[in-house]
Design goal:
Number of domains of chain B: 1
Structural class of chain B: mainly alpha
Distance between the termini of chain B: 168 Å
Shape of chain A: globular
Number of domains of chain A: 1
Helix content of chain A: 55-70%
Number of strands of chain B: 0
Oligomer: heterodimer
Strand order of the largest sheet of chain A: 1-2
Number of strands of chain A: 2
Shape of chain B: rod-shaped
Low-confidence stretches of chain B: none
Order of helices and strands of chain B: HH
Largest interface: A-B, 47 and 32 residues
Strand content of chain B: under 5%
Radius of gyration of chain A: 20 Å
Number of helices of chain A: 8
Mean pLDDT of chain B: 88
Strand content of chain A: under 5%
Structural class of chain A: mainly alpha
Largest sheet of chain A: 2 strands, antiparallel
Number of helices of chain B: 2
Helix content of chain B: over 70%
Order of helices and strands of chain A: HEEHHHHHHH
């Protein structure tokens, strides 16, 4: 099954798998079902982990989740400059981090990219672009919400002549966000699939370990940049 | 590397759902518990700080009171010593007076006793002398001579004594 045309097949497998079925008139592909799976796991774990919270954590799950949230909060606080801001935009940014991390790691599951219905969502540009679009709109939404119409003044700074460049920059941001994430995850999957095709036993292992690291770093970078964009858009005195 | 619009739409919908649900079931409860804990720790630390300050104040007050009490005890002791000294002198003086009085009384009594004894002795001697004289002169004298003789004799004895 993993034999001769394996490299090509593996590469193909990491490509879009096509529609599995339709829901509300929208095609549902493997990346969408994988997202649903990840969301279901995240939501179920969250639900049961927070059923019986204690001021003194008694369960390892509460400890682990507190550690995760504390870690994200610290990191956002450092990126955005104030804990108040980090807390305000915490739901969106932490969800990006958690979902992207889970998505990246879902590519390491056995059969990901081969089995129908299981494909790392962040290994497709469609999904990373969608995330970047959410960042794009939420950045400007929060900017206007915080500062009103004066938010748009920053497009004329430092001199009005730079308006076109500032506008282009705003559109480059989501482009770079989505391409960076997609390229890293897709590339990594391709390498793992290739190594797997050459020798399915020990060979892909180092790359999969690296994949754990890269998956974390990419989730980190995406969230950090999104946090910086929002922090800049909502910053006082611009 | 192609864009599939349905995937994008689903990704956006999924993400927004996840934000809402995780906010309700993960972020809010967990962050509030963490915040409460932080608040409690902060409060406890403040309380501990206050309690420490309070304890120090009490300790200071206590040591001051201790100092005062010690001073008072010392002054009481001094007063008591002085009082005892005065009492001692008074008692000794009184005792001396009493002793003097007793001595005087005793002297008076002795003197009186001596006088009485002398008087008695005088009377005794007189009667003895009469008896002796009677024996000697064998009732030769009349009463008048007799009395004169006795008187002389008494005078003699009185002079001697």
């Amino acid at each position: 099954m993993f034999a001769t045309p394996a490299y090509a097949a593996a590469a193909e497998g990491a490509e879009h798998g096509g529609a599995l079925f339709s829901l509300f008139g929208l095609e549902v592909s493997s990346v969408v079902t994988t997202m649903w799976l990840l969301m279901a796991v995240l939501i179920v774990v969250s639900y049961f982990a927070t059923r019986n919270l204690k001021k003194l954590p008694e369960t390892r799950l509460q400890n682990a989740l507190e550690f995760l949230l504390e870690f994200i909060l610290d990191f956002l606080t450092q990126a955005m400059g104030s804990e108040e801001k980090a807390k305000k935009y915490f739901p969106v940014l932490a969800s990006f981090f958690i979902l992207i991390l889970a998505s990246n790691y879902s590519g390491l599951l056995p059969g990901a990219g081969h089995l129908p219905g299981l494909q790392a969502p962040t290994s497709t540009l469609s999904v990373t672009a969608a995330f970047a679009i959410v960042v794009f709109f939420s950045t400007h939404y929060y900017g206007v919400k915080e500062k009103g119409l004066s938010y748009f003044k920053h497009f004329l700074e430092p001199i009005p002549l730079l308006l076109p460049i500032n506008v282009v920059e705003e559109f480059v941001k989501p482009l770079s966000l989505s391409l960076r994430l997609y390229g890293n995850v897709y590339g990594e999957e391709l390498v793992i699939a290739g190594l797997f095709a050459l020798l399915p036993f020990v060979l892909p292992l180092p790359m999969m370990l690296l994949g754990l690291l890269f998956g974390l770093i990419q989730a980190f970078v995406f969230t950090l940049l999104a946090a910086l964009y929002i922090a800049t858009a909502t910053a006082e005195g611009h | 590397m192609e864009i599939h619009i349905p995937d994008m739409v689903w990704a956006i919908i999924n993400f927004l759902i996840l934000v809402v649900v995780l906010n309700k079931f993960l972020y809010k409860p967990l962050l509030s518990v963490m915040e409460e804990r932080k608040e409690e720790i902060r409060k406890n630390m403040e309380n501990a700080e206050d309690a420490k300050a309070e304890a120090l104040k009490i300790k200071e007050k206590y040591s001051e009171e201790m100092h005062n009490a010690r001073q008072e005890a010392r002054s009481i002791l001094e007063r008591a010593e002085k009082l005892g000294e005065e009492n001692k002198e008074k008692i000794i003086a009184e005792a001396r007076q009493e002793a003097d009085k007793i001595t005087e009384k005793a002297q008076v009594a002795v003197r009186r006793e001596k006088e009485e004894a002398l008087t008695q002795l005088r009377n005794e001697v007189a009667s003895l002398a009469i008896m002796a004289a009677e024996k000697i002169i064998d009732k030769n004298l009349d009463k008048k001579d007799h009395e004169k003789m006795i008187g002389d004799f008494i005078k003699e004895v009185g002079d001697v004594s």
